[in-house]
From TrEMBL:
Transmembrane segments: none annotated. GO terms for molecular function: ATP binding; protein kinase activity. This is Protein kinase domain-containing protein. Pfam families: Pkinase. Residues 1-81 form the Protein kinase domain. GO terms for cellular component: cytoplasm. Keywords: ATP-binding, Kinase, Nucleotide-binding, Transferase. The keyword Cell inner membrane does not apply. It comes from the Bacteria. Signal peptide: none annotated.
Length: 81
């Protein structure tokens, strides 16, 4: 989640990190090495572990909903339950 602030009482602005694309885009550009797969899997598992610790479930986990921000992969489009 990004940061938010009220500039006035009528509008809410949300500022988020700029993603370089999704895991789906990254795969389409030419595949992944074994080391990349291990790294991405560990990062996704860490994110899911955190959500489950909060009694939340992602509900729509797929490569298009995993965003690349610098060298990190982050869960996005959380249809939480």
């Amino acid at each position: 989640m990004g940061e938010f602030t009220f500039f006035n009482t009528e509008m809410l602005y949300l500022v988020m990190e700029l993603a370089q694309g999704s895991l789906e885009n990254h795969i389409a550009k030419g595949g992944l090495s074994a080391d990349e797969i291990k790294n991405i899997t560990a990062q996704v598992a860490q994110g899911l572990n955190y959500l489950h610790g909060q009694n939340k479930v992602h509900r729509d986990l797929k490569p298009g909903n995993i965003l690349k921000v610098n060298q990190q992969y982050k869960l996005a489009y959380l249809a939480l339950r």
